[in-house]
Amino acid sequence: MLHPIDSSSPRSVVEDNPWHTGAACRSDEAGLFFAPSKEPTAARLAREEQAKRVCARCPVLLECREHALAQPEPYGVWGGLTAAERRVVLARRRRRDVELREARRVGVQQPRRIAG
Ligand code: SF4
């Protein structure tokens, strides 16, 4: 999958993923979202923060983030998260799913919401 910033994305990619058309990064510098080879750590952190600032004003942040988690996309900043941050989110979701399955297996009721 191409990053939304990649203006060379085939038209079919955009048509299949209509959220791409609203991506704030389509008008930003391509180098912001992916690491060049042998990028020093301080430069990477600064670049990722810049990319996250673009994501923070993006109207399709949630769609982009869920796409990157579902693929999963192994590189770059997507939906305001770095690849390492996405790995943490995925690990938490897997752990939660395991806990929910186990709770269902042993018949533990989910706490009811109290109205009002
Ligand atoms: S959330 Fe960030 S990476 Fe995703 S489309 Fe928007 S600006 Fe691009």
UniProtKB/TrEMBL annotation:
<feature type="domain" description="4Fe-4S Wbl-type">
    <location>
        <begin position="24"/>
        <end position="88"/>
    </location>
</feature>
<keyword id="KW-0004">4Fe-4S</keyword>
<keyword id="KW-0804">Transcription</keyword>
<feature type="binding site">
    <location>
        <position position="25"/>
    </location>
    <ligand>
        <name>[4Fe-4S] cluster</name>
    </ligand>
</feature>
<keyword id="KW-0238">DNA-binding</keyword>
<feature type="binding site">
    <location>
        <position position="55"/>
    </location>
    <ligand>
        <name>[4Fe-4S] cluster</name>
    </ligand>
</feature>
<protein>
    <recommendedName>
        <fullName>Transcriptional regulator WhiB</fullName>
    </recommendedName>
</protein>
<comment type="similarity">
    <text>Belongs to the WhiB family.</text>
</comment>
<keyword id="KW-1015">Disulfide bond</keyword>
<dbReference type="Pfam" id="PF02467">
    <property type="entry name" value="Whib"/>
</dbReference>
<keyword id="KW-0411">Iron-sulfur</keyword>
<feature type="region of interest" description="Disordered">
    <location>
        <begin position="1"/>
        <end position="20"/>
    </location>
</feature>
<keyword id="KW-0805">Transcription regulation</keyword>
<comment type="function">
    <text>Acts as a transcriptional regulator. Probably redox-responsive. The apo- but not holo-form probably binds DNA.</text>
</comment>
<keyword id="KW-0408">Iron</keyword>
<keyword id="KW-0963">Cytoplasm</keyword>
<dbReference type="InterPro" id="IPR003482">
    <property type="entry name" value="Whib"/>
</dbReference>
<feature type="compositionally biased region" description="Polar residues">
    <location>
        <begin position="1"/>
        <end position="11"/>
    </location>
</feature>
<feature type="binding site">
    <location>
        <position position="58"/>
    </location>
    <ligand>
        <name>[4Fe-4S] cluster</name>
    </ligand>
</feature>
<keyword id="KW-0479">Metal-binding</keyword>
<dbReference type="InterPro" id="IPR034768">
    <property type="entry name" value="4FE4S_WBL"/>
</dbReference>
<feature type="binding site">
    <location>
        <position position="64"/>
    </location>
    <ligand>
        <name>[4Fe-4S] cluster</name>
    </ligand>
</feature>
